[in-house]
Amino acid sequence: MRQALIVVAAGGGQRLGQSIEKLYVELEGRPLIWHCLKTLDVPGLFQQRVVVVAPHTENRFREEILRRFPLDNPIRLVPGGATRPESVYLGLLA
Q1: E strand or H helix at 67
Q2: What is the CA radius of gyration of the chain?
Q3: SS3 for 3?
Q4: Confidence (pLDDT) at 18
Q5: How far is CA 78 from CA 17, 30, 69, 90, in A?
Q6: If we measure between CA atoms, which residue out of 77, 69, 24, 68 comes closest to residue 48?
Q7: Bridge partners (DSSP) listed for residue 67
Q8: H helix runs in 8-94, sequence order
Q9: Three-state SS for 7?
Q10: Residue 86, φ and ψ in degrees, nearest 5
Q11: Could you report the per-residue pLDDT of 31-64, keeping only the tens digit for each?
Q12: Strand, helix or coil at 8?
């Protein structure tokens, strides 16, 4: 059976109370989302890794996270929807 990791990170993170999106807030010098992805960046654990991001922010994610803090396994970025359920659905479709 093939297994995929789907991380839905398309929200703004308003409840966190920060001036920037939650996934770009840094902890120990690295973005929060990187800590999540790095923990699960284990060879052979997943055949596919999908991160659902806010629409039209794929390039920003690539530049500010994936290029600055490379991971060993490839990540596929998918634009999310208008709601969390829609973003989850788009991640599952990917």
Answers
A1: none
A2: 13
A3: coil
A4: 65
A5: 25, 22, 19, 7
A6: 77
A7: none
A8: 32-39, 58-61, 84-93
A9: strand
A10: -65, -40
A11: 999 999 999 999 989 999 999 999 999 999 999 9
A12: strand
